[in-house]
Amino acid sequence: MLVIVYATHITPRLLYIWNFISHELTGKDVHITTDKNEFATHTGLCINYSQQRIQQNECWIKPHGLLFETNIQQQEIQCFQWNDLKVFFKTEGDIAFDIAAASFYLLSRYEEYLPHQKDMYGRFAHENALAYKEQFLHRPIINEWLLSFSQILQLKDSRFQPAKKMFEWLPTYDIDEAYSFKHKSLLRTFGAIVKDLFTGNFKQISLRLKVLNQKQNDPFDVYEWMDHLHQQYQLHPKYFFLVANQNGRYDKNILPNQPAFQNLIKQHSEKYSIGIHPSWQSGDNVLLLKKELESLKKIANQEIYDSRQHFIRFSLPHTFRLLIINGITDDYSMGYGSINGFRASVASSFFWYDLENESITTLRLHPFCFMEANSFYEQKQSTHDALKEMMAYYQIVKKIEGRFITIWHNTFLGTDKKFEGWRDVYENFVKEIKS
Predict the structure, then answer these.
(1) Is the pLDDT assigned to residue 98 strictly greater than 80?
(2) CA pair distance 237, 169, nearest whole angstrom
(3) Which of 231, 175, 165, 232 is nearest to 404 (CA)?
């Protein structure tokens, strides 16, 4: 069933968000018209997005105004309750708020273009976000709005049936440190031993030597166990590899010229979908991303279209523009590296809107809502509480038939004492949802 939207004029913002809404509801592009006669004679579902009602059988939403603006400015936002959901941009019509403008504000990450405080890593601090301040960060509230909106549309036209959606869980892994002790340079190994000597960490020295003498497995070498888990439960994960050509404070992986690392990448590229994990250094030097991509492409012998930023370090619009220039079509960074939740308030993929250029781009964003490193380092959770939170997000996303994307690291799934019990969290979660 064709849905038509009437507006007095069409802007890139309006076209972008109504296409997103239409795809979520019907799986198809929307038809937007400025012709009142075409709208009035349309035999399908009619949505009037203008200042005045046109006909009785339409769904009328009086615009807030954001979609017709061409600048970026502080927006006056007051949240209120509607259908047991928190909403904003109050308006008139058949729905109490401008669902299109509110969705656009959150999806475009409008607030991240406004002056804001950075966190210790130079990222947009989650404390600045409306979703955090208004306590809906833990909910894919745009999806929830659209579920209520679809019910309103069905009341307007009983022939309207939302498209069937399928819940999906996508497990993803960031390989920041492929190995704890193995395949590192003599200088790095010697330096680490000296550091352990000075700190009196003799157990670490002993473990390192056992691993290097092949008497014990490397604590981070957990790839066979992961493979077995994937096969057992028919999982189809995605791996992101950090392939910085030199080490830095936040880039600690072994270098891509190491044969062992190359073999690891090749093995995974033959079995799974892989992507680039741009280094911290590439955020400061725009030329490095191209070099890292070339390295990964050469090793994997395939084109690379997927990406996720190391430390979830990105700034808008610059990082995403750089990804597009370098041929990336899908990015998996839309979430916080400081707290779990829905950064863009949605559990569906969506195209990135370049707010400064007022343009719809070809870069599709895939939001995640749970990363074990947030639970461990930032939220200081026990393994019990982390499993409880992960399960809660799973249930929330399943309820709205969205896409549940999680981030785990091989380091947490290994045998390092620091992460003891976290492998059990992951395995218990998989068993619970797959049983």
Answers:
(1) yes
(2) 9
(3) 165
Q: Distance between CA atoms of 264 and 173, rounded to whole angstroms? A: 14
From residue 69, how far is each of 63, 236, 387 by CA, in Å? 11, 42, 43
Quick check: 5 pLDDT over 70? yes
The answer to whether the Cα torsion of 201, 206, 207, 212 is positive or negative is positive
Residue with tokens 């990406």: 307
- Residue 128 structure tokens: 């600045």
Integer Cα distance of 329 and 323 in angstroms: 8
Rounded distance, CA 71 to CA 74, Å? 10
How far apart, in whole angstroms, are the C-alpha atoms of residue 14 and residue 99?
Answer: 12
81 or 204: which leads in pLDDT: 81
pLDDT in tens, 115-173: 999 999 999 999 999 999 999 999 999 999 999 999 999 999 888 889 889 999 999 99
Q: In what order do the strands lie in the sheet with 238-241?
A: 350-354, 359-365, 330-331, 306-307, 273-276, 238-241, 168-175, 403-409, 370-371
All structural domains of the chain: 3-156 (no CATH), 168-180+218-434 (3.20.20.370)
Query: Is residue 317 reached through a cis peptide bond, with omega within 30 degrees of 0 on the bond before it?
Result: yes
- Looking at residues 21-49, what average pLDDT do you find? 94
Helix (H, G, I), strand (E, B) or coil at 361: strand
249: which 2 tokens? 């404070």
Q: Which residues are paired to 60 by β-bridges?
A: 48
pTM: 0.95
Could you tell me which of 185, 204, 184 has the C-alpha nearest to residue 193? 204
Contact 354, 119 (CB under 8 A): no
| 173 DSSP β-pair partners | 239, 408
308 phi/psi in degrees, rounded to 5:
-145, 130
pLDDT for the residue numbered 354: 98
DSSP state of 405: E
Of 277, 390, 411, 412, nearest in space to 341 by CA: 390
Question: What is the 8-class DSSP label of residue 406?
Answer: E
Adjacent-strand bridge partners of 221: none
End-to-end Cα distance, the chain: 38
| Across 271-275, average pLDDT | 98
246-259: average pLDDT: 93
